[in-house]
Amino acid sequence: MFDEPLTAGTLVRGNLTYLPVVPGRIEFARRVRQFLLAHRPEVVAVELPGPLEPLYRRAIDRMPQWSVAVIQSDEDEESAQYIPIEPGDPSIEALRTAAEIGAETIFLEPAVRPGSQSLGRYPDTASIEYIGFGRFVDEYRVAGSGKHQAAEVDANGMAWKLQGAVPFASVCVVVSLSSLDALLDAMDLPQEEPTKPRTRLFENADLFNLHPDCLAEVGTEPPFYQEMYENARHDLDGFVSDRRIWQSALLKDAEREYGINTGESMRSWQRISVARFSRNLAALDGDLLPGTYDLTLAARSIVDDNYGYEVWQTANRFSVQQTEDDALETVNISGDDLWLRTRKLRIRRRLPRVKQMLQPAGLKRRKREEYEGEWASQTDGTSICSYPPEDLVIENFGLQLKGFANRTISEERSHTERFSTSMLDGIDLRETVRNWHEGALFVRETAKHSGDIGAVVIIFDEDREDKYSYLTTWLGEHQNESDMAFYSTAPFDHIVGPGIGRAEYGGLLMTLPPRRMYNVWDDPDYDLAETKAERLLMAALDYSIHKDVLYVAKKPPRSMFRQLAARCNRRIRYIPVGQLSPTQLKKVRVVHVLDSYKRRATAKQYIW
Predict the structure, then answer these.
(1) Do residues 510 and 394 touch, judged by C-beta distance below 8 A?
(2) Which domain holds residue 270?
(3) How far, in Å, CA of 368 to CA of 362, rounded?
(4) N or C end of the chain: which has fewer CB within 10 A?
(5) Which residues 6+ apart lie within 8 Å of 190 measured at CB?
(6) Are residues 37 and 159 in the same domain?
(7) What is the pLDDT of residues 473-510, one digit of tens each?
(8) Is residue 440 part of a domain?
(9) Which of 370, 375, 398, 409 minimizes the C-alpha distance to 491?
(10) What is the Cα–Cα distance from 205 to 55, expressed in whole angstroms?
(11) In 3D, which of 138, 178, 123, 176 has the Cα closest to residue 289?
(12) pLDDT band at 190; cut points 50, 70, 90
């Protein structure tokens, strides 16, 4: 947090201390509470409509539950104005804290302005974490945003209220930044009492309890954030005012609920993509951090509708809010009733249906241990072998990678040129359309790669922290099965059947023809390697019978390996692992190790 005194951003004029705030923002609610507790003024003035003071008093008494003031118009009985009263608003916090310290309170606004709850456009308050309150207030005023036309209308009335306050008492004026400069100008001149409105607008005003399902739509801050603030309200020194931390906590809770309700787990690439997507959405609105809508849209777009639903439900969570209240009637209103230009998002939540969950009577259930440690006791560890169906999966995946690499090499060698004397391999429609304004044809020459890939190295994790401790090399059993060297988690730490262990690849090497590979992990020729991934790559260059070696990883190998490959008359073809299907990578990354060949007959009963 930016370190600054509590008086930063305040203005002192005689016995009046102006504390400018951004309405509805938790950072300023925390600031107001800290300032009032530290200085304990005798009077606290807030920029709230005086005619609604009784409703605000009732709403404060039932805090931290949310309320809404509903103002019915005499002229149009079907229209109403809604003013949410939420615990994270600075003015509401000023009233609550003033009651604690025994200060007198003054409601400054002489009337209710239509749409007053959305008055003013402010910079993202997340910047306060870096620049502080003082500079935030100064930059806002210098930029010319400090005078708002709607605020100037009631500035004289607010000034009249302040000028009539206790003359020698210490007064803290909690005023919005958009009204600050207009109020300061009005305080320079004596003001007359403002005329009272002719309409009986406030006689039809009443207070209602807000339904828990609508809080995120009508609130200026996500209820999840406001509950975090409410829980730390009596010990604000331990409350972190960093919106990035709030957002991270929201997404973690949503991810946990997503796993419970769907059985799915989030991948690291999905978390990164959600962060980038939501950041770009926030940038389009000129904000530093995404709001609830941005997070929900990113979660739905990157993961699925179920995760988007969990993000929205988590953001809407405020545990103390009740669906029914003995003293107040409960209303469920939408964002359209309060805000202009609301954005809508359709989420189609997918839940398992009962009929789909029914199983045929003859379907065998997965076998379980009769007692803990039964399967581990049946593992002798004298030998190991692979599970043939998984061998087919990994071999087919290796063939797909070789084909993908060959197509990539061919694409790199192909070229397009303007048609002159030969059609080469045909018209390049894309380039022709792109240069249609030139009125010329473009033709393409495809240079097919005639070579083959001699070895394939796939690195899921470079394992610089030594998480994958199981190192082994096994030989192909027939001419179509590759020799393989890999490092993985310890398979027999996760027993799934008698003599059957489950592991996860960290990286692997495959090469044909089989039965040629010495134990890669004990070969002193590869001691120059700094990581397990580099050792596999050195072995691939050594055992490959073709010139090209395919290397799939998050980042390319060090430049020294290009030189090493050239000395061996080999060439490294690098493919970023991000270009491959995450679903397919998740499938091939699992490996089962059997402790003997006899386990293959029963393995299908335990491996799913």
Answers:
(1) yes
(2) 223-337
(3) 18
(4) C
(5) 163
(6) yes
(7) 999 888 889 999 999 999 888 888 888 889 999 999 99
(8) no
(9) 375
(10) 8
(11) 123
(12) confident
Residue ending a domain, choose from 337, 370, 404 = 337
Q: In this structure, are 185 and 37 located in the same domain?
A: yes
In one-letter notation, the amino acid at residue 416 is T
Share of the chain above pLDDT 90, in %: 45
| Structural domain includes residue 368 | no
pLDDT score recorded for residue 202? 58
64 upstream amide cis, omega within 30 of 0: yes
Q: Are residues 482 and 596 in the same domain?
A: yes
Query: How confident is the model over 91-98, as a mean pLDDT?
Result: 95
Return the bridge partners of 80, or none.
Answer: 72
Other beta carbons within 10 angstroms of residue 132's beta carbon come to 18
In the numeric block, which tokens belong to residue 278? 């939501």
Same domain, 392 and 320: no
**Domain check: are 181 and 232 in the same one?**
no
Q: Are residues 198 and 250 in the same domain?
A: no
Handedness of CA 253, 256, 261, 262 (dihedral sign): positive
CA atoms of 251 and 274, how far apart (whole Å): 10
* Residue 93 is assigned to a structural domain of this protein: yes
| Alpha-carbon Rg for the chain in angstroms | 34
Q: Which two tokens stand for residue 530?
A: 């700094």
121 to 145, 176, 178, 286: CA distances (angstroms): 8, 11, 8, 11
Identify which of 401, 349, 344 has the alpha carbon closest to the alpha carbon of residue 576.
401
Q: Within this chain, do residues 112 and 75 fall inside the same structural domain, yes or no?
A: yes
N-terminal to C-terminal alpha carbon distance within the chain: 50
Number of neighbouring beta carbons within 10 Å of residue 545: 11
- Number of domains making up the chain: 3
Which of 158, 176, 210 is the C-terminal boundary of a domain? 210
184 and 285 co-located in one domain: no
Report d(CA 82, CA 115) in Å as an integer.
9
Is residue 105 within 8 A of residue 40, CB to CB? The reply is no
Both tokens assigned to 322: 């009740």
**Residue corresponding to tokens 């609301």:** 342
The model's pTM: 0.62
Q: Which two tokens stand for residue 605?
A: 């009963």
For residues 246 and 553, give the distance between their C-alpha atoms in angstroms, rounded to a whole number. Answer: 33
Rounded mean pLDDT of 34-43? Answer: 93
CA distances from 105 to 129, 170, 299, 430 (A): 30, 12, 44, 71
Q: Which of 547, 545, 523 is nearest to 536 (CA)?
A: 523
Number of H helices, E strands in the chain: 19, 19
Interval 276-320: pLDDT, tens: 999 999 999 889 999 999 999 999 999 999 999 999 999 999 989
Token pair 């359309």 in the structure block, residue: 433
Is residue 472 a contact partner of residue 568, using CB atoms and an 8 Å limit?
Answer: no
Sign of CA dihedral 294, 580, 547, 456: positive
Count of residues for the chain?
608
